[in-house]
Design brief:
Oligomer: single chain
Number of strands: 14
Number of helices: 14
Length: about 350
């Protein structure tokens, strides 16, 4: 599969093969000794099937994949690994029927756009974009010419990637990491019953982050909780943004914001120094020191993404593949983190948790 329209290429090759065979049937001679056409009439003991015959027999061709990851952090790294593992399990491993060009934009949209433009120029068969900014850059660069499969995008519609999650349209589809914010806010209240104000640190330039902050604000309002926002635009501002919340909030919530998650240690230091418990949206950030989350398995989401890519390799149109969300949202608790922040974990919460870190 050197490009997305392989099934069209197959049809053309099949028609050419029919015309060639028709010509052989009506001509006066044979093809013995000729190097043209197929080898089936050469009489050679080492006959090689034609490309048409290979395709008719379902022979696989190398798939050229471009993967653009917005930034490195455990959740996105797990997504990437899940994608590659799913493809491997379906017979496509890097170096064996799969050629992968993997690049990180280091949290820069301009770099993400340059990467996507390179993939288009290199005629990659499919562009895989991990995180919302990379997906937006890929869709812009591909301009409907190459399939784009995204992963870890909170709201694909708000990001302008698809017409709807049920019917994406165009040449774009993928997986979403959106989780119910009412569950997240309710979880904070279970750990901090008297919570009145929740601080949220987010990259105000990212669509996915703004969508989540709006959802958190609405969910908190229903419980009589105020949300205090700390908007930043770069990783270097994360610690300063956290510091701005000190003395103003009873807990801190981190959405699936790539800029903040990649600089989580800066948030953790300020929070621990000032005794403000942190709650997250993803499992990996809980393992790194946040108290708890109702989160998804990013590796599993990546695996789902890889299976979508496999569908496209097999000729399915992206427009016909609905955007998928994680099949499971699980409670994960870091007992050490809870202890450091002076929080008690009830037996009910422990029993509900799928995983307990720091036991």
């Amino acid at each position: 599969m050197r490009n997305f329209l392989k099934h069209h290429k197959l049809l053309i090759l099949l028609l050419v093969g029919i015309f060639i065979l028709a010509g052989c049937g009506t001509g006066g001679g044979t093809n013995e000794g000729s190097n043209e056409g197929t080898n089936e009439n050469t009489g050679s003991g080492t006959e090689q099937p034609s490309q048409t015959e290979n395709n008719n027999e379902g022979a696989k061709e190398t798939v050229y994949l471009g993967i653009s990851q917005f930034v490195e952090h455990p959740a996105l790294d797990a997504t990437q690994q899940g994608i590659l593992d799913a493809l491997k399990d379906n017979g496509y491993e890097d170096g064996d029927l799969l050629d992968v060009d993997l690049r990180s934009s280091q949290a820069s949209f301009d770099t993400a756009l340059s990467i996507a433009q390179k993939f288009v120029g290199d005629q990659r068969d499919i562009i895989v974009a991990i995180a919302t900014p990379s997906a937006q850059a890929a869709v812009q660069a591909a301009d409907g010419k190459i399939p784009v499969v995204f992963a870890a995008v909170t709201d694909p519609v708000a990001a302008g990637l698809v017409e709807s999650n049920e019917a994406p349209g165009g040449m774009v589809t993928g997986t979403s990491d959106q989780v119910p914010m009412d569950q997240q806010v309710g979880l904070i209240k279970k750990f901090v019953p008297d919570v009145k104000k929740i601080g949220v640190i987010f990259n105000s330039a990212e669509v996915n982050s703004n969508v989540q902050v709006d959802a958190v604000t609405a969910a908190a309002q229903d419980l009589g909780i105020e949300v205090v926002k700390a908007g930043i635009t770069t990783g270097s501002e994360v610690q300063q943004g956290t510091q701005s919340l000190v003395g103003k909030v009873d807990a801190i919530f981190i959405p699936t914001d790539n800029t903040v998650v990649s600089a989580f240690e800066g948030v953790l230091k300020v929070a621990q120094d000032n005794g403000i418990p942190i709650f997250a949206s993803d499992v990996d950030t809980v393992e790194r020191g946040a108290v708890a989350t109702y989160g998804m398995d990013y590796y599993q989401m990546g695996y789902q993404t890889g299976e979508i890519i496999f569908q496209i390799i097999n000729g399915e149109e992206p427009a016909n593949i609905p955007v998928q969300t994680s099949n499971e949202i699980d409670l994960v608790i870091n007992l050490d983190a809870a202890s450091k922040f002076g929080l008690e974990v009830s037996d009910d919460l422990k029993n509900e948790a799928k995983e307990l870190f720091g036991e």
